[in-house]
Amino acid sequence: MSVEQSHASAEVAARVERRWTIVAVIIIVMMALLAAFAGIHRATMPQPRVETIDPSRIHLSGEFVESNLGSVLEANGTVTVRAIGQQYSFTPACIVVPADTPITLRATSADVVHGILIQGTNVNTMLVPGYVSEQLMRFTKTGDYLMPCQEFCSFGHEGMWGKVKVIDKADFASRAKGGGRLSCVGQ
Amino acid sequence: MLVNRKLILAHFWFAFAVFGVALTLGAWQMFIRSPIGTWLSNPELYYRSLTAHGTVMGYVFPTLVAMGFGYAISESALEQRLVGVRWAWAGFWLIVAGSIMAVIPIALGRASVLYTFYPPLIGNVFYYLGVVLVVVGSWIWVALMSINLRVWRKAHPGAPVPLAMFANVAGSYLWAWTAVGAALELLLQIIPVAAGLKNTIDAGLARIFFSWTLHAIVYFWLMPTYIAYYTIVPRAIGGRVYSDSMARISFILFLVVAMPIGMHHTFADPQVGAGFKFIHSAFTALVALPTLLTVFTICASVEIAARLRGGRGLFGWVRALPWDNPMMLALAFSFVMLGFGGAGGLINMSYQLDASIHNTQWITGHFHLIFGGAIVIMYFAIAYDLWPHLTGRELIDIRLIRTQLWLWFVGMVVTTFPWHWVGILGMPRRMAYFDFGDPAIAPQALSVTLSAIGGFILLTSGILFLVILARGMRAPQTEAGPYRFSLAVHQPVTVPVALNTHALWVALMIALTITNYGYPILNLALSEGTSVPAVYVGAQ
Ligand SMILES: [Cu+2]
């Protein structure tokens, strides 16, 4: 191979390399832009605010006392669900919510790290003791959904399964008439 | 010329021995959680096993491979006797001692916290101290790699550092800084609580410290694999490295951007706001760059080998590749698994898509495909390639080696693809068993069974690997000659200072980590009342 040839081949190599690098950079910029677009439009968004809470006192006072857990229909027509995870169950063990309604899930842990995952949906959040998790959700189909704990929380982790019951909007409204907190219990 | 063969062999043998044990545990775990093996009445044993499997596969095995390979690179690429051999042995024995110290409480069921150790669940203090010893042992290696390169530079002022050593030292610096996150979590938070000096801990802060380590550690595992792609494969199949500088750029990019991205593991966590999570997501996208560059450079390097062997046409050269060469096979399998694993990774890193699969079996599938698949198969290839130089004996079981690699590839696909599928269905990870009698879970039984079968294919492959290496210790003697690395098409005569030294990139790595982690960590550390009571494993 002559010196000129080797010089020419080096140039070809550099050109091909440059092209590939440009393609790679474009792919990555596109990914970041897509994420930004979807994030700004709140397709799903990680929780923006950080709220702290003392897990040793949640049973005594504040929004996570036993009587305040479950679903509640707010004045503006939305629904708020409050739940606690502890070794090895969720309270309430079964959550009832209406379809086609904006729902805010607020949950925390009473002991170790747990996770809430509603199968067949994008609802998926960690419960870290000391912090409140908040997630927006909306169900389009009625039916029963399984809600396992998705983070290892010690030896009983595999038994920690909750349930979500999505019922008709009108049904839910009539059940919520008397005020108070709803769960599947007593249905 | 490899002088300290015993040192290197000790690292590899200990690595592969513990790998064999952890692999057996893994196969057992998949069996007992599948519908074919639901006889286990005590799920606690499952979590002991899972903790041991994760701790060995995550911390001990890849660290020892990187260290052994690193010493071999240092000696053969620099053509210089290893400086600090005694220290190297001290590091090795620290890791052995640390591994034993960690495994005893695991076996006793006193440390079933999994290798991710997320407080306030706290295990026995000796488990954590053992992990610390492993890390300290590996830091000795980091220092030795740096010192050896410095000695060489003094003797060869201005000369281009051999690519293998340049990459090896980059990998060691990456590890040194990566391990700091978990080290801070262990030393500042967990160990005082595990030792009983304190009884509260900030679980949110601990998760952020751990995320610092948890993602970048994958790139540390990846380093030996990438070094093999660039500096072993082209030589072994009769080709050349397409571009020496592209290789250096890839390793530098890993050093800089692999670090400050770990918070993508905490997208669903309540203790950090959305802003920093988004920054980490965008940086994670950037890590695709060195891999995309590598895919290009390695495919081009392989094409050179094919064309030298008479391959023609736009794609016809693929047929001309030496497919019966184990190194070629390993590379192809590794690339296929890296492709699928990487595509899954892009979904995990997405700010939004993550919610669909966060903490499901998908994640297990993803990282087994990347680590167990793409990475470990190249560890096999590295061992096969180095073995004759370490033992002075030829590896003659070429057909068996090919079978072993095929089994690993098939086993990994059969194990991980069903996991991805049930992950999308919402199957949570880390569960000792499932109630397949529940009609809502029953449809997942087939996938879980398939994974268990994959686990046994992997175990067979792993056993075969150990057998091949052991047989290699008593094969006929041979003169393997000096251990060589691939040459580039255009061997560098001079290299720009930026591509020949690490200082600038290490500074950038540290600066980026501080900007991406500094505020969230300070914010959490300074906020009052976020510490919660510790929950000790086994204390009821
Ligand atoms: Cu749980």
Automatic annotation (TrEMBL), chain A:
It comes from the Bacteria. It is found in: Cell envelope. The lineage of its organism: Bacteria, Pseudomonadati, Pseudomonadota, Alphaproteobacteria, Hyphomicrobiales. InterPro entries: CcO_II-like_C, Copper_CuA, Cupredoxin, NosZ/Cyto_c_oxidase_sub2. The keyword Cytoplasm does not apply. This is Cytochrome C oxidase subunit II. Gene3D superfamilies: Cupredoxins - blue copper proteins (2.60.40.420). PANTHER family: CYTOCHROME C OXIDASE SUBUNIT II, NITROUS-OXIDE REDUCTASE. The chain crosses the membrane at residues 20-40. Residues 76-178 form the Cytochrome oxidase subunit II copper A binding domain. The keyword Metal-binding applies. It comes from Bradyrhizobium betae. One of its GO terms (cellular component) is membrane.
Automatic annotation (TrEMBL), chain B:
Pfam families: COX1. Keywords: Electron transport, Membrane, Respiratory chain, Transmembrane, Transmembrane helix, Transport. The chain crosses the membrane at residues 12-32, 52-73, 85-106, 126-152, 173-197, 209-233, 245-263, 283-306, 327-347, 367-384, 405-425, 445-469. Residues 30-536 form the Cytochrome oxidase subunit I profile domain. GO terms for biological process: aerobic respiration. InterPro entries: Ba3-like_Oxidase_I, Cyt_c_oxase-like_su1_dom, Cyt_c_oxase-like_su1_sf, Cyt_C_Oxase_1. PROSITE patterns: COX1. One of its GO terms (molecular function) is cytochrome-c oxidase activity. One of its GO terms (cellular component) is membrane. CDD domains: ba3-like_Oxidase_I. PANTHER family: CYTOCHROME C OXIDASE SUBUNIT 1, CYTOCHROME C OXIDASE SUBUNIT I. This is B(O/a)3-type cytochrome-c oxidase subunit 1. The lineage of its organism: Bacteria, Pseudomonadati, Pseudomonadota, Alphaproteobacteria, Hyphomicrobiales.
